[in-house]
Write a structure and sequence with these properties.
globular; single chain; 7 helices; 39% strand
Length: 314
């Protein structure tokens, strides 16, 4: 049961501070041959409204977004920055009152050719000897995996960017909106079927998600994801666990020309594990974005100061 809950939370808190959510958002853009809902009208576009230019076809959006998120250069670009990640996990009672809260501070930066979130503080205190040892082991495992994994590959805590994930969803271009003063394409997505495969813990949640994604029309970068469950999630016919509600909201900010970093992530889980009610919400914020120099594995330490942070650009 603990592993299932970790998997559900992992689907929205993967490394690069939301890469899993980006992977999920990208997946809605794909349509498997035969049986896919057309993106827009029969030509793959939505008729223009007023003086607005025609919306791009679903095929064009898919091509551009996938080309960006699977480009190793984008990963290297993100690895040139550091930030401080503040994660707050609250466990609620049946009335929505907080009965338990945990605060975590991570130092996010380049490591082993990727981006790693190093835990440096828990509930306002430095890591205990046990937590420090666990963090050092987690960091070493990350370095070992980074030697063999390709971009988008995944372990049990990550959602890979691959065709298998894309084919889980149907999607439709629904419009164009202004996001932070820039045009963004809006797409609606939903599960392709009620019988999708379960190959990892996160699949229980991923297979039931529906919602919208906003994509910057000039950079073709995902800037916002708003998703929720389309149906109740049951593990072992509900005998092990049930999730009645999962709400996800993820946003990125534009740091410069073509450069985006995570800004905030909110998640809410309601359900049951065995005979115990589950009500949990997670809030993640990233601050102090600044240029970074890659480091090697070392004992966890406090987050670098936020001075010199780069302000988001429109």
């Amino acid at each position: 049961m603990r592993n299932f809950l970790q998997g559900a939370r992992g689907a929205v808190t993967a490394r690069r501070g939301g890469l899993a959510v980006l992977a999920l958002a990208c997946s809605l853009l794909a349509a498997a041959p035969g049986g896919a809902v057309p993106l827009g009208n029969e030509q793959g576009t939505v008729p223009p409204q007023g003086d607005d230019p025609p919306l791009p076809s679903g095929e064009e959006v898919l091509h551009r977004v996938l080309a960006r998120v699977t480009n190793p250069a984008m990963r290297l670009l993100a690895a040139q920055f550091r930030s401080v990640q503040h994660t707050e996990i609250e466990k609620l009672d049946e009335k929505g009152n907080v009965r338990e809260r945990e605060d975590r501070i991570y130092d996010v930066g380049p490591l082993g050719g990727g981006v790693y979130a190093r835990l440096v503080e828990r509930n306002g205190k430095s890591l205990s000897p046990t937590d420090l040892r666990d963090e050092q082991e987690r960091e070493q495992r990350f370095l070992e995996r980074s030697k063999t994994q390709t971009f988008g590959g995944g372990d049990s805590d990550r959602v890979p960017l691959d065709r298998e994930l894309f084919d889980r969803y149907k999607g439709e271009v629904v419009g164009r909106e202004s996001w932070n003063g820039r045009p963004a394409i809006v797409l609606h997505f939903w599960p392709r079927s009620n019988d999708l495969p379960i190959r990892r813990r996160q699949d229980y949640v991923l297979n039931k998600l529906t919602g919208k994604v906003w994509i910057d029309e000039q950079d073709w970068e995902i800037v916002k994801v708003d998703a929720h469950l389309s149906d109740r999630v049951r593990v072992m016919l509900g005998l092990i666990a049930t999730l009645d509600r999962v709400d996800l909201d993820f946003e990125q900010m534009r740091m410069g020309e073509g450069m985006y970093l995570p800004l905030k992530l909110s998640a809410r889980f309601d359900g049951r594990k065995l005979f115990t009610a589950l009500h949990e919400q997670v809030e993640v914020r990233w601050t102090g974005q600044r240029p970074a120099v890659e480091t090697t594995a070392a004992p966890a330490s406090g987050p670098a100061p936020g001075s010199g942070a780069i302000k988001p650009r429109q």
